Amino acid sequence: MRRREFLKVAATGGLGASLGVPVYLRQAWAQNPIKIGMPAALSGGNAQYGIQAKRAAELFAKDIKAKGILGRPVEFIYEDTAGDPATAVRKAQKLVEKDGVKFLTGVVLSSEALAVSAKCPEWKVIFMSTINGAGALTAKSFNRYFFRVNTSGPMGARAISLYLAEAPLKRFFALGSDYAWGRDSVMSFESQITAAKKEVVGKDFPPVGTKDFASYIAKVRQSRAQGCYLALPGQDATIFLKQAHQFGITREVKPIMEIVELENMKTVGEAMVGTIGSSRYPFTVDTPKNRDFVKRFHDMHGTYPDMFDGETYEGLEWLAQVIQKADTAEDVDKVIEAWEGSSYEGLEGPFLMRKCDHQAVQLGFVVEVVNDPKYPHPVPKILATYPGDKVTPKCRTEEFA
Amino acid sequence: MAFVAEQLLNALALAALLFLVSAGLSLVFGILRVVNFAHGVFYMLGAYFAFTAVTVSGQFWLSLLLVPPVVGIVGALLEASTLRFIYRRPPIYQLLLTFGLALILEESVHVLYGPTAKGVDPPALLQGSVQVLGAAYPRYRLFLVVLGVAVGVAVWLFLTRTRAGLVVRAVAQNSEMADCLGADVPRVRTLVFGAACALAGLGGAAAAPMTTAYLGMGVGVIVDAFVVVVIGGLGSFGGSMAGSLIVGAAQTWGAFYLPETAMVIMYAVMGGILIFRPWGLFGQEE
Amino acid sequence: MTLARTRALAPAALAALAILPWVLARHQLSILVDLLIFGLFAMSLDLIMGYTGMVSFGHAAYFGLGAYGSALVLIHFEPPIPVALLAGALLAGVVAAPVGWFSTRATGIYFAMLTLAFAQLLYTVAYKWRDLTGGSDGIAGVPKTTLFWGGPSLAERRTFYYLVAVIVVLSLLACHALVRSPFGRALQAIRENEHRFVSLGRDSRPFKLVVFVIAAAFAGLAGALFAPFRGFASPEVMFWVLSGQGLMMVITGGIGTLVGPLIGAMVFLLVQEILSSYTEHWMIFTGAVFVLIVIFLPGGVVGAARRWFEARA
């Protein structure tokens, strides 16, 4: 009797306490959202990538709305950097100082990322890369506030090199745009492919923004290469593929790309079928979690997720888990500690955040662009999947074991 | 041998494209004494309008015919509503006004079409390739060469054989005198500006199947156009033809032998001409 | 009227500059520093544009050279900031000398095109010389050091702000003195009618060359302040788009007034900053506002302000 009474009183008291006492606190929590700043390139030549980051964030915001993180709502603040590093730093600073964000993500260009992440130790905020591929970010320019969720450039080159080491193709031409990523990618490819006892019979570095690749196509043809490795940014790749197809060279020489974007497939269309390459996130990954994500994404945005859509979503989901684990969204050091060494089951497979350089170890995919009647445009078909430890470089370097 | 033929055709195709863009730029400078920074954006408008026209109608040839006049009208309207009021001011104002117009137009395209590139398919007749001395050469590029020559001849005939062309040339030489002699100078200016934009629009529409329509294509092409026009001579139509051939050849062979330094050499040549012979190969010595 | 009026307003402006860091929020102060740096850039452009009548499409190259010079010195040697500023301004001036020597052989639009060609050349060098400039990635992690050996650190934002404000004000005074000097008067004579100047027996070229180098040095000084402030230097700060924006800043503020372009830069950047927070299509509005200014306010903001004051006088 006494125990039952006691329990009743306790239950009533507890109920009353949970309802009455923290009401004002609960309201305070509701008005205390976790803010994530996204200084993305939303205008200018790289706008299509910034928009991918934004789309992923919008879907994630919707998915997380019910629970929040740590019971708190999540607020995304977008700023347009126009793809200019000076503006990126300015906007990031505004996000940190005026809006009080502790997490920055969605930065598109590697030059922007290098400039912004260099400031993060001073600002004490976490920079989460879901797009930036520059190897230096986890090597020479590393700082502990930087985390890279996405596949880096060297990792992409590695995956495709592993595939080509087994493939019958022996002679390759390498075409990289004349800037940091293009050059690094070709260098990485060349060293790996020669280690696999194959030959790079020629290489060229057309300026960024080349609109006529006729001479380069002629050179590729002359070199009698069997495959042509391309490290060209989105628009340049689109133009090259279109023109290569017009010259009929894609029948003789296999185009191989370090990143294969859905956007290219949609614009170039038929001319891209047969291209193989590395994909950071191919939306055709056949897991229940990914199929569900693709459907939700398509319902919300009317299009299928491209690489940066997927990787940004994964980054946000992982960040949310890490914040939950650290039980704080303000103490950045605790979040960093919680993130280091943590694992995450992503859309495309398992991830592991390396402590030594904050690079997420993840599966590497090699895909081929094929026609599929289920979709209105060509899509990436997965040819090979490599485990994370085979495609991730040695700690703080851009080299592989 | 096939290689040389192929490179020659590449150079001619590129020259044709450059010619379509720079002829208008040169004319606008010659007649209005304005350096039109927005010229590249009209090229881009032509490409995007061609995309819309081809997507909506499925007719490539019709689009190629209708898009340039539409772009020309946009240009003429802009000129009549803005530039016309500031001709008496120092040239820097007109130049910067075109800069401002370029910003507005470029971003408007972004608003209308979104950030992703738009592909345009050439008509069946121009698809695929043709055997040239044993190597496959895209038919579309051959078409570009033909188009460039046809337009060049047409404009040349207009300027030298028609009365309207005579008036245009008179205004170019001495606008005050032409005004005294009864030419409607403001109207000539608007029409020339519109025609120049139409030419650029034609260039863009013709380029779209080869490069797709994309944001920033105007910015990329305007620097090339400046080089062409400086070499050929600002204000000279024949100069823009010659300049296009020179730059087209230089870029084509340069891309083959010295891809990384080709642009640097172009700037050096441009600089050299500006220092030693600023009126270019065919321009008027002032 | 104008000089007296300006002199009257000067103490108020100085007072405002002095107390603003205590009034503004931290990130607003950052924006103000940005405005002052680009204001200095625009002002340097006015020296050649407004006073000598030379339109340059390549002025951003000198801002960029200043930024790279300062960045490299700071990263490799970490000296007090004034050393880096000197390095940046010197680099800009030294490169401007041969460029100016060649460019001033042409006039009008040809001069403008030449400056564009040279600027693009310099941009290409910065872009490709990866070992030195970091290539397309640029140089990040440029430190803020001290005011002088053993002196106060400039990492504190207010301290850096005062450094920038003092330098900008001193530069304004220096340029002001320059255009009022006999040298400056010769420049304006060249702007008005170069043929007459030459026919009176004076050679215009040395004047044009000297002012070109001086303007480049001031632009380099602005760039040299930019690098430690933002912590990096990249090829974008040399691109012709920034040159074009510089021209727009000068016209927005008021060509040929020195303080006009300073204000014009601030107006231009503030409008851009505010608009871009509302829409990613802010360029349409910036372009439209600019077109309206060109047509209706040829004297820029300062010119309009003066007319307004005169009307009420």
Task: Report what the structure shows.
By secondary structure, chain A is of the alpha/beta class. Helices cover 44% and strands 18% of the residues of chain A. Chain A folds into 2 domains: 32-151 and 286-362, 3-Layer(aba) Sandwich (Rossmann fold); 154-279 and 365-391, Response regulator (Rossmann fold, 3-Layer(aba) Sandwich), CATH 3.40.50.2300. Chain A has 14 helices and 15 strands. Chain A is globular, with a radius of gyration of 23 Å. Chain B starts with a helix and ends in a 10-residue tail after the last helix. Chain B has one domain. The model of chain B has no long low-confidence stretch (mean pLDDT 89). In chain B, helix 2 (39-57) packs parallel to helix 4 and helix 2 packs across helix 8. Chain B has 11 helices and 2 strands. Chain C has 313 residues and is mostly helical. Chain C has 14 helices and 2 strands. Chain C has helices at 2-23, 26-49, 60-77, 81-103, 108-128, 130-133, 157-180, 182-192, 194-199, 204-230, 240-253, 259-278, 282-296, 300-312; strands at residues 139-140, 232-233. In chain C, helix 12 (259-278) packs antiparallel against helix 13. Chains A and B meet through helix 3, helix 8, helix 9 and helix 10 of A and helix 1, strand 2, helix 8, helix 9 and helix 10 of B.
